[in-house]
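Hi U.,

Before I forget, here's the chain from the pilot set. I'm dumping it here mostly so it's searchable later in email.
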Amino acid sequence: MKPDMLDIAFLPALAVICAVTSFSDSREGKIRNFWILSGVIWALAVYGGLSLYRLHAPYITEELVLNTLFNESWGRLLLYTGINSLFALVCGFLLFHFNLWSAGDAKLFFVLVLLLPLKYYFRHYIPFFPAFNLFLNTIVVTAFFVWADTAWKLVRFARANTEKNLWKEMGGASLAQLKGSAGLMLLAGVVFSLLMCAIYIFRLETRISAMLTLLFMLGLIFLGGPLGRYLNEEPRRRRFRVFAALFFSALLVSPMRGQFLHLALIMMVTFLALYFMVGILPALAAKYGIGADDMPFAVWLSIGLASTMLIKGSFLYLVFF
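Structure:
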């Protein structure tokens, strides 16, 4: 992908804002409004200046229009950039409202989205909000660092405490947690099998099925715990197990049998990996008083921005395409 005028205008600004906010967040725990306002003003000045210049030289923006996801008109590019940024602002402050990150992180997310040209998303899974890919990249990178750091500390802790067999103790605790999560795994299997049936019956295109898979994954992450506890109560547990057994049996004798078995294998491996990272590692770390090293979120947003630009817009690009 060759550079264009938006790259020349915005990439240096993004580099400066990421570097300065990461440094100040690391040293002082603050993201200064000066840099947020500077980014907004610069974005408005660039898009406004190009729009005015286009009145006299329309060809100036043709390459920009063609070199993006939305290659229909300059006005549509501006509209989608604005809508994408507005969604980022709303998403950021919703996360702030639920105490998932700070107001400074929300504002930084908004200004990074405003300054990042649309072409860097390549593919998007939520209509009008391709910047969700940037957020997802940030969370994925953050999570893998935290999990890797926690796992390494647990290994060092177990090796340092030789007076008792901590490896056996950790293994027993992990197996106990896996047994307790059987209901959640069954719920995930039913949910994704129903989604597979919908994709097969309605012949949904790849982009829509990928977006629905992502939304179902997010739903299970945020609602899986309460739903799992709800279904774990008698007699709901018995009824749900009977339903799941009948449903899976029907799939095994249906034309979707091959897809179902493939899905079941992928789901089991994915569930075990994710549950190890999301459920088992944090529980073991809490049991032995081990915490991951803290890193200011401005740094994570900067890394997420870099990965968005370098891996074709989205971590999920590597999974689905």
